[in-house]
Amino acid sequence: MNSFIDHFNIARMPAAAEAFRVEVRDFLAAEAPSAPADARARSWVAADPAFSRKLAQRGWVGVTLPKAYGGAELDAFHRFVLVEELLASGAPVAAHWVADRQSGPLILRFGSPFQKDFYLPKITAGEAFFCIGMSEPNSGSDLASVRTRATKVDGGWKLNGSKIWTTNAHHCRYMIALVRSSGTVEDRQKGLSQFIVDLQLPGVVVRTIEDMTGDAHFCEVLFDDVLLSDDALVGAEGAGWSQVNAELAFERSGPERLYSSVVLIDCWIEKLRTRGTLDAHVETIGRFATQLTALREMSLSVTARLAAGETPLVEAAVVKDAGTEFEQMAPAIIEGLLGSDPADRLDDELVRACAYLSQFSPTFSLRGGTREILRGMIARGLGLR
Ligand SMILES: Cc1cc2nc3c(=O)[nH]c(=O)nc-3n(C[C@H](O)[C@H](O)[C@H](O)COP(=O)(O)OP(=O)(O)OC[C@H]3O[C@@H](n4cnc5c(N)ncnc54)[C@H](O)[C@@H]3O)c2cc1C
Asked: Quick one: pLDDT band at residue 2, thresholds 50, 70, 90?
């Protein structure tokens, strides 16, 4: 990067990817379960394996993976369109979300031939769902202080420790866990490795954790002398830190960091239109539209860099920080406007969707890396610290 402005070069959505949008919309109109806005607002925490399998039949789980493994072999722009459409419609994507976005691409890039042949066809068939085992009690933001340990034993590894806040672990067969495989906690980034853990192995306990909304979508996962075979290790022993960083660029930059509140915005606009009160709110709607447009352009710019094989970690952090701010602000603004006119008759569906997102939105700037950590990375990337 030579100049500050080079960080977000304008990228154009290729015509083929826009054409794909029509195909995705037709599919969703026919196959997405119909549900009220408060259920659709749960889109990426709502696991519906049957829906994920319908997507998989089109090649749209592991959409960027090679056809040889059952993927659609489409580029990152097509994936961008697919993700936008799924989230904007509030489709229940949680079952396959992590496998599509992170685990599949990670295994393709760093996995052994055995791992590619074994896991990738299961991912693209919608048969193997994955979760992310990074966070631990006392080392959420500080991943380099991970304590869960894999110890080398004859024919494999013995795993002990625990992970926390693991989204969807109770519905998943596999976790890709970041654990310490050599050295001590003081060695920080050194000595960390990624392992694929079959959550059905003896010694694994998965417990759900209820959040403030009453949903239980994330888990605590405990490992007590879990025996992993040698081919559970992903990539090189000790290379976990750089592998995880490559993975996080995918996790942080996509439309999933912009769209969590879009179902609510759409629902609100629809109700205003029905009641004939749209005009009173055009300024707010205009502000949402302007912000989302700018964020989409930034996210697309990062997508172009990912498509070119780069790892734009700092730019992805900017998109995530700014994107989650938008996602959090929208429910707060709509909540403030609801009922501000005493003559308003409140609509149940809208109130429920707004209540859900108001309670859930504090998590947007936690999941995938907290605001403070991202801002530290951005400052470092700009040479400011
Ligand atoms: C809905 C949801 C889903 C999640 N899903 C997953 C998942 O699937 N897999 C997974 O591994 N994790 C997951 N997480 C965990 C998430 O990534 C962590 O919550 C996050 O990384 C923060 O870790 P922590 O909660 O332990 O907070 P802490 O790290 O204890 O941080 C607490 C506060 O201190 C701040 N802080 C910490 N260190 C610093 C520092 N050095 N400088 C400045 N400020 C600092 C943080 O920014 C934060 O505000 C999920 C979290 C949520 C809310």
From this structure: low
